[in-house]
Each structure stands twice: as C-alpha cells, then as structure tokens.
Amino acid sequence: MTTTHSRGIASESRAGAQPVSPTASGSGSVLTPELLAACDDSIDSYATAKTLPAVMYTSDEFLAFEDEALFAHEWLCVGRASRIPNPGDWFCVDLAGEPLIVARGKDCVVRVFSAVCQHRGMTVCEGAGSSTTFTCPYHHWIYGLDGRLLGAPAMERTAGFVKAEWGLPNLKVEIWQGFVFANLDPDAAPLGPTLGRIEGYLANWDLENTVALPSFTLYDLPWNWKVMFENFNDGYHANKLHQVIQDFCPSEMAVFPEPWDDASNVVFRHNGFTHIDGGFNATHKALFPIFPKLTDEERWRATFALVPPTLCLGLAPDQAFYFLVRPKTANTIDVEIGYLVTQETVEHPMFEHLLRASDAGVQVFVMQDQDATTKVQRGLHSRFAARGRYSWQEESHVQFNRWLVQRYKRHWPGV
Question: DSSP per residue over 132-163, as a string?
C-alpha cells in the first residue's frame, strides 16, 4: 500500500481510490475539482462509504465556502420562540457572520432582521431585552419592532432620502416545533415540508408547548461544526466513550427508522434502552415526570436528530434537549444548549434537586464528548488523518454527508 499526504487531508490509494490533494502544487485554493469528486466516496452505503476528506473540517477557506453554500441558503435555527413571549421582547444572535435581531412585534408576530444600522453599519443593539423601538447608539436612527426605519435625525437635507427605503433587512422566518428558523435567502423554499420524515416521531412530546429551561452557551469550543453534528448523532460511541453511564442505551440498539430522502432536511435515529424510561444520568433512569402522551414504545428509546446546519435535537422520555451550533472558524464553534420539559416538571416540589442531579449526569457526557471532539479535531490536522470507514451504527453520518455533498455540488466554484 502506498500513501501520499498533504497537510489536513490524507490522500490514499486504499481500495482503489485515487489520491486526492488540495492542489497539484500543494498550495492555493482547496476548492478543486478533485476534492469535490472525492466527496462521492462519502455518500454511498455505510458499508462502502468513507469519511469526508479532513481538509473539509480544518480549512478556513472551506468554511468560507460553506458560509455561502450552506449558511447563506439553508434554514438556520436562532432559538426558541418562547424566549420572546411578549410583544416587544427581543434577543440578538450572530450567525454566519451576520448580527441578527429576533423580535416579537406589537402584532405578536416573530420576526428576524439584521441588527446592522443602514446608515453607517453599527449594530443597533446587543444582548436581549424588551422595548418598543431600537435606537442606534451612533447617530440615533430609530427602528421599529418590525425593522422599519421610524426616525433619522437631520436627514431632511439629504437628496432623495425616503425613510421607507432604509429599514433593517428582514429574513424569511418559520417556526417549527417551537424553534424559530430564519433564512438569509429570500428565495428559499419553505422548511416545514422538508421535515415531514420526523414529524410523527415528535408528536407526543408536543415540543411547541414545553417549558424551555434557561439556555447557556459554551464559547470557542475547539472543533469544527461538522464534528459537533457527527458526535451528537453518533450511535457507535454511545456505550464505548460513555461506558457505564450510557450502558442502558447501548450502541447495538441503534435504529435508523426511515430511508434517506435527498429532499429531506432532517437526519435522525433512535437508540433503544435496556429498560423503560431510561435517563442520561448516574441512575440510568428518568428523573423528571415522563411526557404524558408517550407510548410504551417511545418510553423505551431516545431519538437524536439533526436539522443542519445549526440544530441538534434529542428526545428522552422525561426531557428534550437541543444544541444550536454556531461556527466561528474552521476549528472553533459556539454552542447554545437548552432543555425542554413538561409544566409538571417545573412545578415538582423537588424540581431544583432533580435538576441538579440531571445536570450532574449531563456533565459526565459533556466532559467525555469535549475531550473526544477536541482530539478528533487535532487528529484531522495530522498528515496521517485517514478517510475512515463506517460501522452500521454510523448510518446517520452517511445521511449527513449526502445532505452536505448535494449542496457542495450545487455551489462549488466552476460547477
């Protein structure tokens, strides 16, 4: 076996594959026809597919391409609608380099619009709050809760200036299962119809009407956004990396219930339990009250779903949990984490104690996952990083690859 290497991408002749390098000279753009062609090895059956080339996880040039190919056209989850329950409530979020405002208007409609003042580019607000207008602190241009420009001091002598033409740009918005999604592409097709494969599996959690516990954000985590997505939905490591604490939810009980559909925007799997009402904590049992509408079958499993490129969603019998993934560089991300529970849970007289016990269990998973994903990202930079092979317990990864690659092909330079 002979192997050639370029830093950040292992180029192999295993199983008859042709060597691939970012460029013939080893310098310049990584976005070559050869790299795109190499993706075809990652979208076949899990039995024959290979992992994506390592450079796709390590190159800032490739992330800049993904910003345009994915984040500029796909539906991005910005948070929960319940975070802004009243007219005038708002919060800010940065996604794909865009500062955005998520606000509930006087008409109770949730809108997402740019936070960039249309005068000189300053962001008009930060953080979260409740107000009737937004005032840019630089020159006091005033915007409404729908982004309309309401006031612009001393602009009366500016030729042809019409306030109605200078509002904050609005994004397309959809609310799905209580999550707010926005799209930077004004011509984007609706999100809802592309999530139909999973709708029936979520119905009994009634996520739109759950109670969202306060979320928290982990900053500058040292790995690529795709590594985060893969780890979240990886059944293969379940009771290997998480030995003992996840023995009740073993890898060999992974199930992939629906065939992949290239029109779908959701990748998901179930993982069975060895007993009813399993819980991701030291007791291996659910600590909170069970969602009341669950069937016996649903109480014997967890579900893990990806709505790329921003939302990871998990369902257990007593809680749902979500990660909102925000790339910063090819090698760093921020992740907002939140939990959804029943009203009965927060009214439980021992809720605070149960929450601490639940969080203690979660922290075990977090520490193990953070250690693993940090080392995966470091390994992907190695000249010896191979294009690995998949287990049947990793079928979700090949589905995720297919979601990615069809979009890479659609936007690849020169294609």
Answer: SEEE-TTT--EEETTS-EEE-TT-TTSTT--G
How many structural domains does the chain have?
A: 2
C-alpha–C-alpha distance, residues 78 and 101, integer Å: 10
| 277, part of any domain | yes
Q: Tell me which residue of 241, 373, 371 sits closest to 312, measured CA to CA.
A: 373
Q: How far apart are the first and last CA of the chain?
A: 33
Chain mean pLDDT for the chain = 93
**Is 229 inside a domain boundary?**
yes
Task: Indicate if 222 and 356 belong to the same structural domain.
Answer: yes
My answer on whether 313 and 367 are in the same domain is yes
DSSP state of 116: B
Parent domain of 154: 76-183
β strands within 89-137, DSSP E: 89-95, 98-104, 110-114, 128-130, 133-135
Q: How confident is the model over 247-269, as a mean pLDDT?
A: 95
Whichever domain contains 149, its CATH number is: 2.102.10.10
Residue 370 has pLDDT above 60, yes or no: yes
Q: Do residues 313 and 322 lie in contact, with contact meaning Cβ atoms separated by under 8 Å?
A: yes
Helix axis angle, 225-232 to 351-380, nearest 10°: 130
Q: How confident is the model at residue 27 (pLDDT cuts 50, 70, 90)?
A: low
CATH number of the domain residue 292 falls in? 3.90.380.10
pLDDT computed for residue 28 by the predictor: 87
The pLDDT of residue 122: 98
Tokens 């008409």 locate to: 107
61 within some domain: no
* b/e code 95-105 from CB counts within 10 Å (16+ = b): bbebbbbbbbb
- Residue 3 has a pLDDT of 34
Q: Which two tokens stand for residue 144?
A: 């409404």
Same domain? 349 vs 250: yes
- Assess if residue 85 is contained within a domain: yes
Q: What is the pLDDT of residue 1?
A: 35
Structure tokens at 370: 């953070």
CA geometry: angle 225, 229, 234, nearest 5 deg: 145
Same domain, 227 and 82: no
The token duo for 178 is 């209580």
**Pair (229, 378) in one structural domain:** yes
